[in-house]
Amino acid sequence: MEVKVIGAGLAGSEAALQLSKRGIKVRLYEMRPVKSTGAHKTDKFAEFVCSNSLGASDCTNASGLLKKEMELLGGELIQIARKYSVPAGNALAIDREVFSKTVTEKIESDSNIEIIREEVDEIPDGNVIVASGPLTSEKLSDSIKQFTQSEHLHFFDAIAPIVEKDSIDFDKAFWASRYDKGEASYINCPMNKDEYEKFYNILINAPKIELKEFEKNAKFFESCLPIEVLASRGVDTLRFGPMKPVGLVDKRTGIENYAVVQLRQDNSAKTLFNLVGFQTNLKWGSQKELLQSIPGLENVNIVRYGVMHRNTFINSPQLLKPSLQTRKRENLFFAGQITGTEGYTESIASGMLAGINMANYIEGKSLLILPKETMLGALTQYITDENHDKFQPINSNWGIVAPVELPKKERKNKKLKAEYIVNRSLEYLNSMI
């Protein structure tokens, strides 16, 4: 018995490894480098495209709880991510090159996994996990559309620029994490009011890359908006978003600035840093002008400019069960961002669940359907809820988990609420193991 896994991104790689360690043969299809997506830069598996961060690491954050659940359920990629993490305060960020190289080598050396470097034109027969990602090829998209009997939904994902650390002026920039939590692992470029207004005027007047015709009706995902879209909502929007100065004080001056641009470590050598929240679709010349208007980045060397690409996801509430099995074909599963699970951690988690459940299906076992008391259960049940009117991608958050009952006087205590949810989830998962 074998399983065909379509796509060797984060979800597909995780699914393949889950199947293999259960003794199931896998044929893993990846079209790169035969055919590129336009956003990927390498032919490696599990490549991080937008940023190198998997989000919060602490369990008292929704994304952190999801990571802990993955570890308890035997997630493979989360272990590799922990091993090759780089400093990022309370977040789990990785050296993306080393991470992808390690995942690729692990899969290539796995005797249960056969790698096939070619484009898949249509959904194959047999046991299949489709983890083709948000940049699914046009031919496979058409096949999925025929199978689902429905149109795809679209939104945009934008990628932030990466710069060289040695080209940053540390007479102006300073190291800190917000509220001094964890290590001082972010580079911060402070702005006064005049500097911010100059930056803002450059941004709102900068020319953008024209969208292709097929992209013009697509939708933005709210948590990954291009910085120019955020700026269009008002002059102070950025100061209350990715450029908020709260909790970031330069100890050399003791000043809380008008706005702050943060940069996060992108590789383990600490030579490259990406601009936090600076996803953009500005033309490259405009990006250079904009970045070099930021104090500390006047002479910065940009090693990768920001780009924006279309993401594709299926109407999961009408198509999938909480097990990630399709409603109309029991040996077909979907996983990853194509299901509407937004975020790197969420993609890996859905690939893990799809791999576990495909193995259970083949072995005649009950499929794993986690309750809303767990973060992964809440996530999968949310994206497969048939009551959705207008389905949009979502990432892990406290709002989707089963509500908790706290005494009235403690209901506004967010920390206590998070701790209760975490303990409830971990108790449930530990009882399963």
Write a brief structural summary.
The chain is of the alpha/beta class. Helices cover 30% and strands 17% of the residues.
Describe the structure.
- With 433 residues, the protein is α/β, with parallel strands linked by helices.
- It folds into two domains: 2-152 and 314-432, FAD/NAD(P)-binding domain; 162-309, Elongation Factor Tu (Ef-tu), domain 3, CATH 2.40.30.
- The protein is built from twelve helices and 19 strands.
- The protein has helices at residues 10-20, 62-72, 77-83, 96-108, 138-148, 193-205, 227-231, 284-291, 316-319, 344-362, 375-383, 414-432, and strands at residues 2-6, 25-29, 53-56, 85-86, 91-94, 113-116, 128-130, 153-158, 162-164, 174-176, 186-191, 219-220, 249-250, 255-256, 259-265, 272-275, 302-304, 308-313, 332-334.
- The strands form five sheets. The chain has a six-stranded antiparallel beta sheet with strand order 10-11-15-16-9-17. It has a five-stranded parallel beta sheet with strand order 6-2-1-7-19, covered by helices on one side. It has a three-stranded antiparallel beta sheet with strand order 3-5-4.
- A hairpin with a 4-residue loop joins strand 4 and strand 5 (91-94).
- Helix 2 runs parallel beside helix 10.
- It starts with a strand and ends with a helix.
- 48% of the residues are buried.
